[in-house]
Design brief:
The chain is an alpha/beta fold. The protein has 2 domains: 2-202 and 399-408, Rossmann fold (3-Layer(aba) Sandwich); 214-396, Glycogen Phosphorylase B (Rossmann fold, 3-Layer(aba) Sandwich). It has helices spanning 2-24, 34-37, 59-75, 88-95, 111-121, 135-143, 157-164, 167-174, 184-192, 205-208, 214-224, 242-255, 271-280, 306-311, 331-335, 350-356, 366-378, 380-396, 400-408; strands at 51-55, 80-85, 102-105, 125-129, 148-153, 178-181, 197-200, 231-237, 260-265, 285-287, 297-299, 315-318, 340-342, 361-362. Strand 4 (125-129), helix 6 and strand 5 (148-153) form a beta-alpha-beta unit. Helix 5 crosses helix 6. The longest helix has 23 residues, at 2-24. The chain is elongated, with a radius of gyration of 23 Å. 45% of the residues are buried.
């Protein structure tokens, strides 16, 4: 059955890739890259040099693998390291990594396109990040004797159920792929799908957490005009959470004198709604790009500052978790020792919850969020001790990059 499903997939991708390319060319992530993705324009690679091909879908995966890229460069200074990404933002972030020799759009997963890319690149090793399981990429690599390793491999229960619907195909693809999973649970799901070589080594994101600078905390607070006021941040707010956050904020503001709030949406498209809700609530608000000295609430409209903003806060809510979207990264506020609140929907970060072993504050509604913010701000010592314990646990679990390198050393050119 696995061979039959594989053959069907290969035929369908070969037939549908042309109309799919025409449709996708209208979307921002694909605009201007269709010829590359169809294999009609190929990367220009120096001949006769060993090469590693890394594929990371988007920004999160690129950032997760950055430390491993740097480590590979130290271990193999004369190897070409290239990275493909599906999204434009992923390629933009990857282009800022000096250890990468080449960044290019991920080609469409059709057999003949993958053959063209593999012929052009001649990789000695294929490294796939997280859950980017593209059958033709893996099958064509196997046919050329190129080992495939999935690093930071994660598999939520929801994803497992989807893949299990095509378990013969999954087993055919994964049976000789080397899996470096973020946790025992994720590794177990890959094993149940038919992967034969699975190691649970931890999450690379643990090693990618930035070092904290206490002086930076004061600089950011001063730049915001927060001074010594109690600061609450809601970071990575997702669609559907905006109203809940403002509902909680109204209760907190009435209970915590001098409250200063920071709202950081996950996507810029949410900013108009946040502005409207702030106006309706009669808040004195400003944008992060235009800080005002009399503001009580800052709406973040800048990029790349969330980590420092978490550090400037006294308590943090991490979004994507009050709605069923899998959660966002709780490790950034915890790295600062900031008490961290999240909702019940944390499927994508269940591994992080395991690492910090209950040192967070879970809530299930806007009302519970308000209560948690009030409590963490009015009982700071208790919750700071909890957050410091989480930070200690994060430090204890670092070293994932070296564990990955130990396994990869068997396949490195």
């Amino acid at each position: 059955m696995g061979l039959v499903l594989t053959a069907v997939y290969r035929v369908l991708t070969a037939l549908l890739i042309w109309p799919a390319g025409a449709v996708l060319s209208r979307y921002p992530n694909f605009r201007g890259t269709i010829l590359n993705r169809l294999g009609l324009v190929l990367p220009d690679i120096p001949a006769h040099l060993p090469l590693i091909w890394i594929h990371a879908s988007s920004v999160g995966e690129v950032r997760a693998v950055t430390g491993l890229v740097k480590a590979l460069r130290r271990e193999k200074p004369h190897v070409i390291i290239c990275l493909s990404a599906m999204t434009a933002t992923g390629r933009q972030v990857a282009s800022s990594i000096p250890e990468l020799d080449l960044v290019f759009p991920f080609p469409f997963d059709a057999p003949w396109i993958m053959r063209r890319y593999l012929s052009a690149l001649s990789p000695r090793l294929l490294i796939i990040v997280e859950t980017e399981i593209w059958p033709n990429m893996i099958l064509e690599s196997r046919g050329r004797g190129i080992p495939a390793v999935i690093v930071n491999a994660r598999m939520t229960e929801r994803s497992f159920r989807r893949y299990a619907m095509f378990s013969p195909l999954a087993e055919e693809i994964l049976h000789d792929v080397h899996i470096l999973a973020i946790s025992e649970n994720d590794g177990s799901r890959f094993t149940r799908l038919g992967a034969g070589d699975v190691h649970a080594v931890g999450n690379l994101k643990l090693d990618s957490i930035q070092d904290v600078d206490p002086a930076r905390r004061q600089e950011v607070r001063a730049g915001l005009g927060a001074g010594q006021r109690p600061v609450f941040i809601a970071g990575s707010i997702r669609e559907g959470e905006e109203g809940m956050v403002f509902s909680a904020l109204a209760r907190v503001a009435s209970s915590v004198p001098g409250l200063f709030s920071i709202l950081a949406p996950r996507h810029p498209e949410q900013i108009p709604l946040l502005k409207d809700l702030a106006d309706r609530g009669a808040y004195r608000w400003c944008l992060k790009s235009e800080v005002k000295s009399d503001a009580d609430l800052v709406i973040v409209n800048t990029m790349g500052e969330l980590f420092d903003l978490y550090g400037a806060s006294d308590t943090a809510f991490v979004g994507g978790s009050l709605v069923d979207l899998g959660g966002q990264n709780i490790l950034e506020p915890l790295a600062w020792g900031v008490p961290t609140i999240h909702g019940p929907h944390m499927d994508n970060f269940a591994w992080a919850l395991d690492v910090v072993a209950g040192c967070t504050v879970p809530v299930g509604s806007a009302e519970e969020l308000a209560d948690a913010v009030i409590e963490t701000l009015t009982q700071p010592r208790r919750y700071r001790d909890m957050a410091q314990e989480a930070r200690r646990l994060l430090e204890k679990h670092k070293g994932v990059t070296e564990r990955c390198l130990t396994v990869l050393s068997e396949y490195l050119p």
